[in-house]
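Long-time lurker. I teach an intro course on protein structure, and each term I like to show students one example going from raw sequence to a predicted 3D structure in token notation. This year I'd like something fresh instead of my usual example. Would anyone be willing to generate the tokens for the chain below so I can use it in lecture? Attribution to the forum is fine with me.
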Amino acid sequence: MKKNSIQAWIAASRPKTLAGAAAPVIVGGSLAWHDGYQDAYKKAQELAANNVCSQDLANQHIVLFSIPFLLCLLFALMMQIDANLVNDYFDCKKGTDREDRLGPARACAQGWISPKSMITGIAICTLLSCVIGLTIFMWNIQWELILVGLACVAGCFLYTTKFSYLGLGDLLVLVFFGIVPVGFTYYVITRGEWTTPLLLAGLGTGLATDTLLMVNNYRDRNQDLISGKKTLVVRFGGKFGLASYLTLGIAAAALGVAACVIIDKPVHSLLIIIYLLLHTATWLKLRETDGKELNAFLGKTSRNILLYGLVLTLCFAL
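-- Reply from a regular --
Happy to contribute to a lecture. Here you go:
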């Protein structure tokens, strides 16, 4: 691969991980549509059909929903790419990405991107993320959004440099890939209060997303032990990692069903069974696999996470 090429930067951004960033925003947006826009949009459509008002009123609801939703989605994707670049640089600097690495090749360690260029890339991604975040703030001027944005940037750096080595990575995933993006996407779009279904959806999405970190840590358990990364799998063993992978998906499905039942959509919640079946099928194959062959399950798990988000979105939006 040519050094500092576009191909190298695409590899460093880790496209397969972007599903984990998109899913919670999609879930939060769909619940925001259900609670804040769906009824008003239908009413406007009916009025337009009866020539009481123009179609512009209905279109206005689409615009008011779409702009903040797309901004939140763009912010989440940019922060995920930034976190991946930070992880690539600091793991290389610490020597975590050794020659015996089982996971996908990393750009800095392989020499595809120079450390100096990676620092520049991190700075650009961080700056773009902040610009998008400020645009969200200008759309919905609530000062707590500034604090949330700063916390996201801090978490982006602290995950690799501190928390992942202390075994707190799973907690950060639950917060920054579940509660925060689901909750604040909803908040930015509707400017409404947090509800029980919103919290359940955020927790469920965070748990579903944590399956990606769990399979990653399960694959790297022996190398992480040598590197001093005290992940939960290192602390409690490989069997714990496998059991956690299955349990996280089951808990995510249960929370999703609970959220649907509370908003009076119990029949729609049956769609979540699709995710649960696919997640269980992935786990059955996962427990028979080890070493570098586990890399294939990163893509499969990302697919499952995106499916969870899409299914929950259908449950809320239908």
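Some talking points for your students: The chain is about 75% helix and 0% strand. The chain has a mean pLDDT of 87.
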